[in-house]
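Ticket #4471: structure export looks truncated?
Reporter: QA, pipeline team
Priority: medium

Steps to reproduce: submit the single chain below to the structure queue and open the exported record.
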Amino acid sequence: MSDPTRTYLDFERPIAELENKIEELERFSKSEGGVSTDEEVDKLRGKSATLLKNTYSNLTAWQKTQVARHPARPQFKHFRETLIEGFAELRGDRCFGDDRALIGGVGRFRGRPVMVIGHEKGHDTQTRLEHNFGMARPEGYRKAVRLMDMADRFGLPVLSFVDTAGAYPGVGAEERGQAEAIARSTQKCLSLGVPMITLITGEGGSGGAVAIAAANAVLMMEHAIYSVISPEGCASILWRDSARAKDAAAAMKITAQDLLELKIIDGIADEPVGGAHRHHKAAINAAADQISSFLTRFEVMNSDQLRAQRKARFLNIGRSLLEA
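Actual output as written to the record:
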């Protein structure tokens, strides 16, 4: 099986050529009778590192969209395994079934007991089908409401990890009340009497993201995106041409940097050079530091103060956009 971290994006072709050349030289050097190529390899490594840094410091909105969707990008599974000790998964919405696109449970984050909820996309064909590519159905959002109710009852801060192209748009989901489930999940977020911190790790798409992201603080990974519709969907509506997704991505202001400037999000977690998919642990730990900082800030507030802060936060988004 090929290594997904070696899946190069279109704009990474020059980097791919250099890294492939390095591998060829190393194989030649190790072969029987091969001459040392250390000096040449070191030069190429330096050139590759410089090119990688320059490339990732000047990404367009569309290129960031590609990075946010990279198949090897860390998912909820990786964040949970790295950050949450003693995780115990809680399944089912007590109404219809258990949606595997949204995973949740209790555990400890840096010693604090917390409730954790996150989208899981899957990492191969089997797990992607199992988790429905991270697109939750109504039972997923009703499970999220159930878990947030439990967190409220026991005084557990809620950490949510968003990575979805959007809620599942299938007929069955609509028949079971998809819009109502999303609305109730969003309402529950806003009414929580405990701190809630959201991290958008990859894609934050439409109501499927907002349903578990109406938090006291919304953070984004450096190369994540957050939007009301995908660039392809926007292009199809505005220009009736999905090929203009690049134009849509630029116009929509979907990057973490744009959204921080617009005061829609509260912070950005830096990613290692080359993106989180190249260095999972470093990216996850950097995000954890941001989460911990905001959690400390909100832990001293009582329930009324948390609700008031959350209400003011979202009302201020509208005011900020009118002023922009």
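Status: closed, not a bug. The export was complete when the record was re-opened. Leaving a note from the reviewer for reference: The first helix runs from residue 13 to 30.
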